[in-house]
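Field notebook, page 548. I keep forgetting to write these up properly, so this time I am using the form the group agreed on. The chain and the ligand, iron/sulfur cluster, are recorded exactly as supplied. Prediction of the bound pose follows.
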Amino acid sequence: MFCYQCEQTARGTGCTVQGVCGKDATVAALQDLLIHATKGVSQYAHRARELGAKDRDVDVFVIQALFTTITNVDFDPERLQQWLKKAAAVRDKAKALYEDACTKAGQEPATLTGPAAWTPAGDLDGLLAQAAEVGVEERRKNLGEDVAGLVELCTYGLKGLAAYADHAHVLGKEDDGVYAAIHRNLEFLTHDSFQVDELLAAALAIGQLNLKVMGLLDAANTEAYGHPEPTVVRVTPVKGKAIAVSGHDLKDLEELLKQTEGKGINVYTHGEMLPCNAYPGLKKYKHLGGNYGSAWQNQQKEFAAFPGAILMTTNCIQRPRPDYKDRIFTSGLVAWPGVKHIVDRDFSPVIEAALAAPGFAEDAEEKTITIGFGHNAVMGVADKVVEAVKSGAIRHFFLIGGCDGAKPGRNYYTEFAKAVPDDCVILTLACGKYRFNKLDFGDIGGIPRLLDIGQCNDAYSAVKIASALAEAFDTDVNGLPLSLILSWYEQKAVAILLTLLHLGIRNMRLGPTLPAFLTPAAVNVLVEKFAIKPISTPEEDLKTILES
Ligand code: SF4
Ligand code: SF4
């Protein structure tokens, strides 16, 4: 196997024997083949669309197949083989759509090669043999390291935005232009040769597309559940039966809250579900008991200690330990072999497991944090914020956000947040916030010094806040007293990074390490164009930022 799509890749170069994430060679190969097959679907879907023909099932399949291959989503070889079968069927549907559109237009259909011509092998060994011919290793051999890395940059950006598109789709929000652009980009990635410049342009265009998708998701979330509002959330458990919900899927949480109403079960958010406590449409449920635990990489310890049932909605799942494997459940696209998968949001098995488990024996000491500073809440006090900047009460804003992970180097973000001077405000989002969100940062004239914007899925909020501040100060985002200190882990973070680059944001600091798929040559281009920097030490970075 060869995989270098996430930050924790082995030795910082690539997982070759077993994924650090727990993905084995079979799963890695099936995921590679699924990406190949999905490109084949888009080769036809893109051409059909050029002739005015489209099919929503084809479109939705493509975003779900891409999302399925994101780090920490699907570890189940059986399920991945089903995805591959479906890919062949959807590809045939897209082919028929294209050929029919050609007939109607009086054109001769082109005979497509590459992924479009893939026929699934009849058994697992055959599929693995096919995968070996279409994986990242082959592209590195055929295209060279620099170009193959940029092809992967585009692919990972598409995977990330597909995840956001799927979350929006789950809540009924779709955009036909987004589907068209995804097909167009996937088709482009099937070409035999590339210029570096066209790949960089494609990557930035994917960042632009991701901004649109994140806007769609923001609308989906806020129209379904209202705008997040500043909310004090309990982060210690109370006595009683319990379910912890992790992942990113608000709809799953809502349905679970409905199905557990009146059953004497407290539902806790975990990981990236924490921001759900701030949505009016979710916090209205009295048995939403607050947040349990911290970021995804601590789940094995935290779930083992959780005396109830656990629901894992989308990423990021880790190998379930035997002491909780029979009381953890997956939903949506996430899957682990041997873990019961919930179908059609019928959470009865989760509820039964919660009732059978002991629950918390007593109330823990009450501890709370404040969350819910999405764009609507922050822009509601924009006058106050602008005034505080003009008066000098607020000197600088730091957006310290992104994914968390297990590497010791991620302590940088805790140390950085602690070292931010008292006259500066910290904005944060995504699971990296757990590095410091239980510390007391106080306030500046009533404005909290730590503003939690939400999930990684809420990066759109951060962009909106930055844009509104830029407008208020009659400058652009680079002209603001704002610095971005980013932590990345998987492909959603890649999509967000591409969006920030598309917006022309300069001087971002990225860590804990730079992506393995970007060669020094590619990194140099980003440094030259965007002055992007790897993190150094909190002291040095703070000094440089505040003195520049
Ligand atoms: S997703 Fe990350 S940890 Fe998992 S195999 Fe790929 S690079 Fe390795
Ligand atoms: S922010 Fe990234 S690493 Fe963290 S839970 Fe979400 S997808 Fe996973």
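OBSERVATIONS:
- The chain has a mean pLDDT of 97.
- The radius of gyration is 23 Å.
FOLLOW-UP: compare against the apo run.
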